[in-house]
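# nightly structure sweep
# worker-07 picked up a monomer target from the shared queue
# config: single-sequence mode, recycle default, output format = structure tokens
# input follows
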Amino acid sequence: MRLRVTLSALVAATLLLLPAGEVASQRKPSAPGATKGKKMSRELPKTDEEWRKALAPEQYRVLRLKGTERAFTGKYWDHHADGSYTCAGCGQTLFRSTEKFDSGCGWPSFFDTADNTAVKFHEDNSLGMRRTEVTCARCGGHLGHIFDDGPNPTGKRYCINSASIDFAAKEKAPRR
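# output follows
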């Protein structure tokens, strides 16, 4: 028993001495592909009642109850403006318009995230299907699913519910 405690203490002490970037680089990325070197998000705890008050009913159903909107009905499935897509639950930047593409599936589709640490992945075997759920790393909100049928360079398709995201338009540079 004494050896286990000593070994654990040695590992803990070693981790404390390493710079934070080196500790993070030793972990396997939680997202497909390599991380993009940004800080990991901190979880945002809220009660169910707080979520009900903060979100519109459809947002609550999708983000908190893992619902989905009908194909071709969400406000962003055919959206083409320049900017970024943020989590409707907590405001964290998730995707950029430069990674959005028309997959024909009826939901906003992206081939990459703005920052791989912004989302988490979970096995989803609901509805008789085997899929990978995508959630916001900060608030845990259900965003949609990821599939291996997207375009290059990642080959991924993040199929995201419009109700789970908001859009922040890219500011245009002032004319001189």
